[in-house]
Amino acid sequence: MRFTTSLAALALALAPLSAHAADEKKKDDAAAAAPVPPPNVSVTKHKGSFGGQSIAYTATTGETYLTDKDDKPVAAIFATSYVKDGGDPKTRPITFLYNGGPGSGSLWLHMGAFGPKRVVLPDAKDDGAPPYPVIDNPESLLDVTDLVFIDPVGTGFSHTLGGKDPKDYWGVSADAKSIAEFIRIWLNENGRWASPKYIGGESYGTTRSIALINELEGSYNDVAVNGIILISTILDFGAAAEAQGNEMPYILNLPSMATTAWYHHKIANPPATVAEVAAQARAFAIGPYAAALLKGNQLGAEERASVRAELARLTGLSEAFVDNANLRVSPGRFYKELLRDRGQVIGRLDTRYTGVDYDKAGEEPDNDPSFYGIDAAYTSAINSYVRGDLKLKTDRHYVTIGGVNSWDWKLADQRGRDGEVYVNVAPYLGKALRENSGLRVFVGQGWYDFATPFFGAEYSLNRPGFDPSRISFHYYDAGHMMYVRPDDLRKLSADVRAFIRG
User: Fold this and answer.
1) Helix, coil or strand: residue 489
2) Short name of one Pfam family for this protein (predicted)?
3) How far apart are CA 3 and CA 149, in angstroms?
4) What pLDDT is stored for residue 187 in this prediction?
């Protein structure tokens, strides 16, 4: 799948509006004229061991209503919160988490990384058929923070009410406004305005986090935030746009091609570690490679030959292939070409995963083996857990992914020609860092993630206007969802736990 201007990491490029989501819309339309029932909520008590501590906690799962200016309910935001029993609301941190898409529920971070339970599935292999065990998760962050997992409108069990058009929430700015409103309501209802606060997301969820910090701290009615957790980061969509004439994606993708080629033993005389090959590729990407691309038709034969040879070495592709691609290998072609001699394609979300296409002659893969290799297990896990352990009773389908369409990528305060075509939320973060001296940023990236390449995250956050002393980068030996690898789940948990402890 080609990475276009809009990030379709977990939604738009991977799945159209699903049949069950369409069924839910029909239900919503039929219910529009009916009286709005009270929010559907379930509260249960639990105990567990997290970070080596025994914790008793209360789980609250269900709906929070957003209202219009006339106090009429217009949207039901589904969320699951875990609050330590007896915690001091003045000192106990609270962390709000969500996934991306746009159009993805929060089940990935919830059931894969930070919730009190997690689903077990094989690493870098297809998850096969059920059952998929759901077990206690000692890596949950409940020893250091209370947790709230949020599903935006159109995802999970979240939906609009009273005839409200869900598309009113489907846009960078509109989505951030709705999540900010939910957070304010949650703080009110739970008496947590004094608590240290963290927000965090994965994939498009990182975009949401930065748009959200602008909504929370960008007005006089501030909700000050202590930290932002960015996992698999995408902030600058212009730099990632695969459009003819835009050379930046080739530069930013090259280090991920090199780490992937290293993983699959496609680099001759490879360095000892993935970090070393990443360093080599970064230096080449912003040096000789960038210079060659920017010269375009003025690139001389001798320089072209030199760049072609090093590009082929780092990517594991033949010189003939990279030459035929004009030194510009798209991600889709790379997924298909790297292991063509083995009859395999590689994943996009996690290039460690491999799959087999209908035939070996195509230009790009039929599908992403790193997505179809995990989706069934997570969908099963969230439904069985919420309806079972958390005792939520609902006849709604949980929208795992693909529940939104027609996303509005224009930023509310960046209209005009440039704002229409270049979507970049990173400046919001620079502003937030300058105006909140206590704000810190955690950035977690997988070496083998092509949906949100690590060099793209580094580029976005290495521009003028950012305080590098308050931004910490962490790297993992997996892809987009690094927590699917058990060792990296433990590392990610420890890294985020240390970040929250400060």
Assistant:
1) helix
2) Peptidase_S10
3) 27
4) 98
Helices (H), 107-156: 107-109
Q: What is the pLDDT of residue 31?
A: 55
Q: What pLDDT does residue 1 have?
A: 37
3-state secondary structure 313-359: HHHCCCHHHHHHCCCCCCHHHHHHHCCHHHCCEECCCCCCCEECCCC
Averaged pLDDT for residues 344-364:
97
Secondary structure percentages of the chain, helix, strand, coil, to 5: 40, 20, 45
Please tell me what DSSP assigns to residue 397. P
Q: Tell me the pTM.
A: 0.92
Among 172, 118, 138, CA closest to 413: 172
Single-letter residue type at 440 = R
Burial of 305 (0-12, 13-18, 19+ CB in 10 A): exposed
Which tens digit of pLDDT belongs to each residue from 54-66?
Answer: 999 999 999 999 9
Torsion angle (degrees, nearest 10) of CA 60, 199, 449, 80? 10
Instruction: Answer whether residue 256 shows pLDDT above 50.
Output: yes
DSSP for 250-300, please give it: HHHHHHHHHHHHHHTT-SSS--SSHHHHHHHHHHHIIIIIHHHHHHGGG--
How many Cα atoms sit within 13 Å of 287 on the Cβ side?
10
List CB contacts of 239: < 8 A, sequence separation 6 or more: 248, 249, 252, 424, 456, 459, 460
Integer CA distances (angstroms), 289 to 118, 180, 285, 316, 460, in order: 42, 42, 5, 16, 19
Percent of the chain with pLDDT over 70: 93
Kind plus residue range of the DSSP H or E element containing 45:
strand 41-50
Residue type at 271?
A: P
pLDDT digits (tens, 9 = 90+) for 381-412: 999 999 999 999 999 999 999 879 899 999 98
Stretch among 9-18, 307-316, 380-389, 426-435 having the lowest mean pLDDT: 9-18
Asked whether the predicted pLDDT for residue 19 surpasses 60, the reply is no
Q: What is the pLDDT of residues 413-422, one digit of tens each?
A: 876 777 777 8
CA-to-CA dists, residue 371 to 253, 477, 480, 487, angstroms: 20, 17, 10, 20
The answer to whether the CB of 190 falls within 8 A of the CB of 105 is no
420-442 mean pLDDT: 94
Q: Is the pLDDT of residue 32 over 80?
A: no
**390-402 burial, b for 16+ CB within 10 Å, e for fewer?**
bebeeebbbbbbb
Across the strands, what pairs with 117? Answer: 136
- DSSP characters for 442-475? EEEEETT-SSS-HHHHHHHTTSTT--GGGEEEEE
CA 379 to chain centre: 17
Which region, left, alpha or beta, applies to residue 343 given φ > 0 means left and ψ of -120 to 50 means alpha?
left
CA distance 334 to 336: 5
